[in-house]
Amino acid sequence: MDETSQKIIDAAMSLVRDKGYVATTTKDIAKLAGVNECTLFRKFKNKKDIVLNGMEQEKWRGNLTPEIFKHVKWELAPDLEMFMTEYMSRITPDFVKLSIGLRAPQLYEESAPLVMKVPQAFLSSLIEYFREMVQRGKMPDLDLECLAMTIFSSTFGYTFLRASFEDNLSSIKQEQFIKQSVETFIHGIIHKQ
Amino acid sequence: MDETSQKIIDAAMSLVRDKGYVATTTKDIAKLAGVNECTLFRKFKNKKDIVLNGMEQEKWRGNLTPEIFKHVKWELAPDLEMFMTEYMSRITPDFVKLSIGLRAPQLYEESAPLVMKVPQAFLSSLIEYFREMVQRGKMPDLDLECLAMTIFSSTFGYTFLRASFEDNLSSIKQEQFIKQSVETFIHGIIHKQ
DNA sequence: ATAGAATGAAAGTGTTTACTTGCATACAGG
DNA sequence: CCTGTATGCAAGTAAACACTTTCATTCTAT
User: Fold this and answer.
1) B174 touching A, CB under 8 A?
2) What is the mean pLDDT of residues A135-147?
3) Fewer beta carbons under 10 A from the terminal one: N or C of chain A?
4) Contact B91, B83 (CB under 8 A)
5) What was the pLDDT predicted at B51?
């Protein structure tokens, strides 16, 4: 990837994040990238091609790899806290806004599967982790998919709300939220018959 | 509100929900409403005016009034289940999609405060409910704002994920999710020292 | 030093967009 | 029957859009 193309991609992606795909014009992109507008079309097929290329880059796609699930202590509390912390540090408000900006009819078909990858990966890794924990006798054998969905929904919900409304909705800090959620969750599943 | 204006608003709002504000053209709106394009501008100042009028209507804004918090039994389990169920039945996928479609630079300033009203109302009513429950000795006096955020984040997260990905992410049914989340949550806060 | 590649500048393409105008028609109320 | 209001229809406007073309300039590798 040559420097000019990268500048174009970076400009395009940050504009899509801020204004959405449809409202982002090629003129905007060129201006922000500091190149001539016609250069965009020498480097890429069209506007769509620019952001599709951007989505392939880890930089603009996030790198929530299942790798974080490899450094586990097999202790519910620190592990869950770590998963939630990792999610929130990798899926920043910028990524949340970007994934919303990409919801345009002109590229929905191509962008939706990529956008869905992160939650899918997180959720299935979490279920896998729970299964192993059950086998190790570290947690009760409840409906693991449902438990994973509970943890993921609240992680996702908090991340999204924060990206959208910042402190205007609630002043609860991230660590506080995570600590309390995990604690409540663990006490909740352990004291279940 | 005369019939023609209502048809125009309905057409505009459902297009914004499906394609987003910027991608929705006045031609589209006119066609779907079954009126001539110039009629839009006889009834409304401009395109923005149409959807701003739509957002004032309960039909397109949802009616998550604090009223649902009045029919409580003052029993944690059935009440929380009721709150979550009410939220999910009122904030349908259509509303979620609409609130995303409204995120356009051309009307963000005017739409954001309205979009934020629903979560704000829900969250503050929930905190109020917890306070009363504590006073009645029905739940321990923990960090109520944080607890409310936990319940709300997961309710919101589940609702949003379902609106975005339907069954492709997880096949967990709504009732199952609510029942399990509430159960875990209650056991969790009760068995805390 | 020179050839080739990358880029800018400027102008322009055809299309789409939000929004307007003028006039014909239908229809309801007095 | 007449008059005013609502709407359709057709045409049109100026601006913005994605994308193109031509030519001049700069940089780079040999």
Assistant:
1) no
2) 95
3) C
4) no
5) 97
- Report how far residue B54's alpha carbon sits from residue B9's, in angstroms, rounded to the nearest whole number: 6
The answer, for A103 touching chain B at a CB cutoff of 8 Å, is yes
| Beta-carbon contacts of residue A59 (< 8 Å; ≥ 6 apart) | none
Closest Cα to residue B52, out of B95, B21, B18? B21
pLDDT of residue A106: 93
* Helices (runs of H) and strands (runs of E) counted in chain A: 10, 0
Q: How many residues does chain B have?
A: 193
B154: nearest CA partner in chain A? A154
Enumerate residues 6+ apart whose C-beta is below 8 A from A180.
B142, B143, B146, B147, B150
Task: Name the token pair of A113.
Answer: 């599967």
Tokens representing residue A121 in the block: 């990966």
Surface-to-core class of residue A28, CB atoms within 10 Å of its CB (0-12 exposed, 13-18 middle, 19+ buried): middle
- B180: nearest CB among A146, A165, A170: A146
Q: pLDDT band for A193, please (50, 70, 90 cuts).
A: low
Whether the pLDDT of residue B193 is over 90: the answer is no
| pTM of the predicted model as reported, rounded to 2 decimal places | 0.92
